Amino acid sequence: MLNAAQMPVAQVVADLPGYVRTPFTNPPRLVDVRGMSAGSKVVCPYTQRPFLVPGGVSTASTPSAPSKPKKEVTPERPRTTADAPNSSVAANNVTPNTSATPTPPPAVETPAVELPYGNAIAGRPGFVNSPYAAKHQLVDVTGLPVGMEVKCPYTGKLFRVPPQ
After folding, report:
1. In angstroms, what CA-CA distances link 44 with 57, 75, 103, 123, 124?
2. How would residue 109 be classed by pLDDT, with cut points 50, 70 and 90?
């Protein structure tokens, strides 16, 4: 049995909280380590060899989408006779209606772009065909949840992980 000093440490995946890349496969494949603390011993599901969970792994249960920055709305102040462009408003003692303050227009959210799903490959679990790449160009999505956005390594376009 290997002791902790001789055991390799997995690589942190910055944009996937709770996932690391195993040090035993080439290319390094994803391993789910959610709920495990840094320094924990994990057995690689692909090679059955142990490795350590690195420090700095966020163990969030699901990746969170970045929130949109909220636009700050400053209320308009009511107009007064001092703001009038000419003196006729002040001379007629006409005061604008200050009880009805203008309401800001409702925020319009753009709908999320519907991303296509990749195509699962029969007999090759964890591998899919990107909807944008050639059929012989496989994408490794092992360990990623169904519906997660993935960038095609061949074209750079986004697609979703299909059910296996």
Report:
1. 17, 57, 58, 21, 18
2. low
